[in-house]
Amino acid sequence: MRRRGLLWIVVAVLLVSCWLPADRTGAEVPAQEVSFLLNSSSPTLNPGGRVSVSVTGMDLADLYAYELEIQYDASRLTFVQAVPVLSQQSSTKAVRVIGDTVYAAYTRTGDAPVDNGSLSLYTLMFEAKAAGEALIHLISATVVTRTNESGLQKRVYPVDEDVSVMVQAAGPGGSTPEAPGDSDHSVGSSAPSGPAGGKAEPEEVSGILVQTPELDRASGIAVARLDEAAWRQALERAQADASGARTVVLKMNEIVGAEHYAQELSADMLRSNGADVRIRIETPYGTIEAPGNMLNQAAWERLDKVQLVIGQADRSGLTQEVLQRIGSRPIVQVEVAADGRRFAWSNPDAPVTVSVGYVPTAEERTNSEHIVVLYIDPQGNMVPVPSGSYDADTGEVTFRTTHFSSYAIAFVQKTFADLESYPWARKEIEVLASKGIINGMTEDAYHPAEAIRRADFVLLLMKTLELSGHGHSDADAVFADVSRDAYYYEAVSAAKALGLVQGSGDHAFEPEKTITRQDMMVLTARALRLTGKLEGSASSSALDGFADHAEVAAYVADDLAALAAAGLVQGGAGRLHPSAQAARAEAAVLLYRMLNMKQ
User: What is the mean pLDDT of residues 288-304?
Assistant: First the structure.
């Protein structure tokens, strides 16, 4: 066992530098009723897969700083990163790896408020590299408390808490990376680079370009730069997936002191390629996956170099309502920068995927579908992002966006008082309402049995799949009976522009008319095909299991068969009821299944 305490020196220096009395930092205090828990996001994974391990402190009081000592099986796991879970405002972290031991420290600074209760302290990410059982061991935790009466007090808690992860053997033709030797280096670095990072050429590891960024101490931004030659070589080696898309993966090592990470590259890399070329930028603060047509608009033509930037957002300007809603959960800032300036990027035709590591609480793990993403607009308003979801396998919250800004993780549990008689739809309604996709007829009532109108279903369909009619002629997207003042005008017009709806003749849509179950399913099939989630056709025999399949209209049969084959249509009591009016509860169940379809 290596001697611990390396980072306690760092924490002590940080405290002293904030004009706190040095003679208090080493004071010992009596034992407290404090315990620590270690949890993993997955008990098993394959070589190359990643697992998140969370450290939680129970019954903590007046917490000001802490250091964790964690040992892991370096023969089977590679340490990737460690991120503190508590608020980043008025705080500093320090992480160090010595051989097979991670030292992760965190401290408030100055007069920042202390934390109390059962708290998530750190999230550690490991990547599997060799088959077998890998043990991760929390050896000890050093806790610093601060009170008005006694100032700073320190106590070391021996913990001896373990969690094991089983790494599966590589499949046929697979391989397992060789284990690196013992080293003493900054987190994530492939070689010692100093606390602020240094200029280093990208190193290709298993098809991934690993970069050590340079830290600009004035701005707190660590920048990795990719030249044309390295880009071309990486693109040539990238393997196409089933859809023909190629992804270049750029990974940044962690740099102590960095508040944001920026990937600098030629604007042509994001301007001259199509959506079938993607760039995945993995940083200690999160991942950005951008399509090669992200900057294909005229406004970006003059730029030579651009930076995609991700980091912790500044909380100081947020309202109390926002802060209370989010709590200590992460708020990530995603930006495009060039020529020393930040730009407002938006491109409805080129959605970008963002992933952020997150360790849910016990309650959140039980109801993980209620972990949501909120876009915080320039006015401080919170707007739900329908695609936001938590993946327990990766330990990340992922969402898609067509514009960059600040995005926060939140936990929302919305319900309605009139769902007791609808157990088959209750979960689906509550999840969609928590994600901001559907609303009740009132604050407390959903009216699940009420028939849904054509315009309302189209609105929900467009919102669920985050579709827009951008780039289509406005004149071609207008129905005579859809008023520009109607709340559903943009959704219906966009659906028409995309070819999802054709209307009912005489250039009319009949927005207030209720929609039948079969028409609801036709619109769903068209939208799923447009997004690539539903491909090909299915035999009409897919409907044979329904007693009333002969009642399905001819123009609907193929689409219903495809949806039934995909598991989206299950009917009721062995019947489709194709001509019946679709109820709001039925619409919610269909939308929920659609939202959870894999691409």
Answer: 89
Structural domain spans, the chain: 6-167, 189-411, 423-595
Nearest to 330 by CA among 269, 285, 381, 387: 285
Tell me what percent of the chain is helix, strand and coil, each rounded to the nearest 5. Answer: 20, 35, 45
Residue 459 DSSP one-character state: H
- Residue 409 β-bridge partners: 373
pLDDT in tens, 313-341: 988 888 889 988 998 889 999 999 998 88
pTM: predicted TM-score of the whole model, two decimal places: 0.69
What tokens were used for 558? 């193929």
Residue 499 corresponds to which amino acid? G
User: What is the DSSP-derived secondary structure letter of residue 581?
Assistant: B
Query: Which amino acid, residue 576?
Result: L
Query: Which DSSP state fits 543?
Result: G
DSSP-assigned letters across all residues of 65-102: EEEEEEEE-TTTEEEEEEEE-S--TTEEEEEEEETTEE
Class of 6-167 in CATH: mainly beta
> Of 547, 574, 544, 573, which is closest to residue 557 (Cα–Cα)?
544
Contact criterion met (CB below 8 Å) for 289 and 352: yes
Q: Which residues contact 120 (CB under 8 A, 6 or more apart)?
A: 54, 55, 56, 85, 86, 328, 359, 361
Cα separation values, 207 from 111, 126, 233, 343, Å = 46, 18, 10, 31
Q: Which amino acid is at 253?
A: N
Q: Pairing relation of β-strands 151-167 and 44-45? A: parallel
**H helix runs in 266-360, sequence order:** 320-326
> Mean pLDDT, to the nearest integer, of 556-570?
88
347 close to 401: Cβ distance less than 8 angstroms: no
* The one-letter amino acid at 277: V
Amino acid code (one letter) for 250: L
Tell me the C-alpha distance between 192 and 182, whole Å: 12
Give the pLDDT confidence of 88-133 residue by residue, as tens digits. 556 778 888 888 999 999 888 777 788 888 888 998 989 888 888 9
CB atoms within 10 A of CB 58: 12
Q: Which two tokens stand for residue 535?
A: 């491909």
Q: Is the dihedral of CA 585, 589, 592, 594 positive or negative?
A: negative
Helix (H/G/I), strand (E/B), else coil: 125: strand
* Statement: residue 346 has pLDDT above 80: yes
Q: Is residue 426 within a helix (H) or strand (E), and if so which, with residue range?
A: helix 423-434
Q: The tokens of 435 are what?
A: 């994600």
d(CA 88, CA 200): 28
The model's pLDDT over 195-220, given as tens digits with 9 standing for 90+, comes to 344 455 666 554 578 888 999 988 89
> Which parts of 94-241 fold into alpha helices (H)?
228-237
CB 280 within 8 A of CB 289: yes
- Measured CA to CA in angstroms, residue 131 lies from 75, 137, 188, 195 at distances of 9, 18, 22, 33
What's the CA angle centered on 250, arms 288 and 307, to 5 degrees? 60
Q: Among positive and negative, which fits the CA dihedral 62, 63, 65, 71?
A: positive
